[in-house]
Amino acid sequence: MASKRVLVILAKGAEEMETVIPVDAMRRAGIKVTIAGLGGKKPVHLEDAKKQGLKVLIAAICAGPTVLLDHEIGFGSKVTTHPLAKDKMMNGNHYSYSESCVEQDGLILTTRGPGTSFDFRLTIVEALSGKEVADQVKAPLVLKD
């Protein structure tokens, strides 16, 4: 079986810990991580991926889940966002909102912000590689349960 691969897309204003903490955990789990930026002026469109019917885990942090709304991805899913992005995310009632630190609904995984990135990272690893691998990644990190 091919190893797991993840593309982390950074937008302007991304918080360092929102990137580094999940990326570190994924790499500890043996997941190949590619980090890409959105620095160009040309808009990025997800229509090609949607047309191909790709079934992939989509994880978004802080205000990142609003990109799902912009591209009409995961309508009907339960999501969470940074509190300041809640109103935008709920515009049109395409999602149900959760106040949970991390929310997973099928292939849509969302979290609220920098402080929730610790829980988020292990949820990503578990979703991609299973609980056993997530527990192995967690063990040396000295985290409270």
Protein model, in words:
This protein has 145 residues and is an alpha/beta fold. It has helices spanning 16-28, 47-51, 66-70, 86-90, 117-129, 131-138; strands at 5-10, 32-37, 58-61, 78-79, 96-97, 102-105, 108-111. Helix 1 runs parallel beside helix 5 (117-129) and helix 5 (117-129) runs antiparallel to helix 6 (131-138). The termini are far apart. The model has no long low-confidence stretch (mean pLDDT 89).
Key attributes of the depicted protein:
7 strands, alpha/beta, single chain, 6 helices, Rossmann fold, 145 residues, inflammatory response, globular, 34% helix, 3-stranded mixed beta sheet, autophagy
CATH top level class name = Alpha Beta
Beta-strand share of residues: 15-25%
Put simply, the count of helices is: 6
The CATH architecture category equals 3-Layer(aba) Sandwich
For this structure, what is the CATH homologous superfamily? Answer: Class I glutamine amidotransferase (GATase) domain
How much helicity do the residues have? 25-40%
E-strand count: 7
Report low-confidence residues grouped into runs of 5 or more. none
Q: What is the quaternary state of this protein?
A: single chain
- Taken together, the total number of domains comes to 1
The neighbouring-strand order within the major sheet is 3-7-6
Question: What radius of gyration results from the CA coordinates?
Answer: 15 Å
Distance between the termini: 32 Å
Structural class: alpha/beta
Question: Overall pLDDT, averaged?
Answer: 89
Chart the SSEs and their pairings.
Elements: E1 5-10, H1 16-28, E2 32-37, H2 47-51, E3 58-61, H3 66-70, E4 78-79, H4 86-90, E5 96-97, E6 102-105, E7 108-111, H5 117-129, H6 131-138
Parallel strand pairs: 1-2, 3-7, 4-5
Antiparallel strand pairs: 6-7
Helix pairs in contact: 1-5, 5-6
